[in-house]
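Checklist before submission:
- one chain only
- standard amino acids only
- sequence pasted in full

Submission:
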Amino acid sequence: MPVSVASPIKRKVADVAEFTGRFEASALVEVRAQVSGQLMQVAFKDGAEVKKGDLLFKIDPRTYEAALQSAEAAVITANTRIQLTKSDVDRAKDLLKTDNISGQVAQQRTQAYQEALASLQSAQAQVATAKLNLEWTDVRSPIDGRIGRKLVTEGNLIAAGASSTVLTTIVNVKPIYFYFDIDEQNFLRYMNYVRGGEIKQDENGAPVMVSLPDSNKFDIDGRLDFRDNQLDQQTGTLRLRATIPNLDSFLTPGVFGRVRIQMSPEYDALLIPDDAILSDQTRKIVMTVGPDKKVAPKVVTLGQLNDGLRVIKSGLAPTDTIIVNGLMRARPGAEVIPQPVDPTKPADQQHAAPAAGK
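Returned file contents:
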């Protein structure tokens, strides 16, 4: 009976592990008002990209403009009082030389001058506070990022403080973080290879690949740049983070994904199609064809999948010829007609070469 055969593929591979995680923004800001007042203007479009310093909301500034003018007037008053008390102090010094004034009066004038200086400093502080409050009537973006929708509309009264209403949120997704949990056994295995220098990482961390839920391809590059400072004793896992550039802002916080991490140094391995492997109770078997064209089973030890092919850790030699299609017709000791195919192609794309004599 004709069967499709191929030789094991020899290549360098590395063991990998996959973990499920979630994307999170590298920065998240809840925008709140720092001064109270009536909201007069919303200056952004919902969902737009904003830059640090862009105007987002405008609060009625008239109360704070008046407070600034009052504070500036207090500075003028304080300066006038300083000039007056300074003149009194200078006259007191001259009168003391001729004993035409008592020391107590001179001391009182000096004290009045010092109080005037302190009043000026207080008035200047009030001016700085009034300017700051007036500046805060323009609510500006504290970071670069993508803004959410407005949560408060024009005309509403806004209260200041940390407990005030959130006006909107801004997230920075360039870069974006991918958080996931790794079990203790895999973490220790990985760290032993890193410590021994067998898995390389630079100052930016070790490279990883991430896949989205709608894809089987791990085609998103990232860097493993953070691990938590302690293991969760309840779950036996450790939280890790990969940083992804996300230059096109395609990745969105909250989306699930899978990350693939290299868990061993590279080694030489033999790979065969996963469909060529049979199960016999607890054993895994591969059917081979010998020089006499007779079928001979071999017990193998399996490794991980690598680009659709299964790593064979033991039980198979590079010179073996394995049956990849037609296993239902292959019985141990039976004579077959081997037809070579390309093992890297799917079964429906394989084309066997004509058998000898055909």
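Reviewer check: The radius of gyration is 39 Å.
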